Amino acid sequence: MTAPAEKLAELGITLPAVVPPVASYLPAVQSGNYVYVSGQLPFVDGKLPQTGKVGAEVTAEDAAAQARTCAINALAAIDALVGLDRVVKIVKVTGFVASAPGFTGQPAVINGASDLFAAVLGEQGRHARSAVGVAELPLGAPVEVEVIAEVA
């Protein structure tokens, strides 16, 4: 398998600095062989590129791109805590989608994150997942992604 840093470079992705918490929590914590990454919003350079509900102000395609950004932010949190080379498996991803009434495309939105993990980590990036529609997310974000990763 290609090292995660090499795969990120091939994909043209530079991991950002870890997004500072917007409340009382840590970006990621390790317990035993697992890293639990707090819900990541799609911050780019400290700002949300778009706010609103998916299926209303935000298209499903734009939301999937933002879920991908959430996944990049999650990888940055893992890398800062333990290093991506220690990732054995992305075990579980939970994606939250701020959904307009009647929007049922949450799985396709969260594919933006799932596909990124698989692209960077190969089979180790494939995971169990939940994709949930919610009424609101912090700061009006359209998506949020949390991750559990097993590490060596």
Task: Describe what you observe in this structure.
It is built from 3 helices and 5 strands; from the N terminus they run αββαβαββ. The protein has helices at 4-10, 60-81, 106-121; strands at residues 28-31, 34-40, 87-98, 128-134, 143-151. The model has no long low-confidence stretch (mean pLDDT 97). Helices cover 30% and strands 26% of the residues. A hairpin with a 2-residue loop joins strand 1 and strand 2 (34-40). The chain is globular, with a radius of gyration of 14 Å. The chain has a single domain (4-14, 27-151), classed as 60s Ribosomal Protein L30, Chain: A, CATH 3.30.1330.40. The protein is of the alpha+beta class and 152 residues long. Helix 2 packs across helix 3. Strands 1-2-5-3-4 form a 5-stranded mixed sheet.
Features:
3 helices, 152 residues, 60s Ribosomal Protein L30, Chain: A, five-stranded mixed β-sheet, single chain, alpha+beta, 26% strand, 30% helix, 5 strands
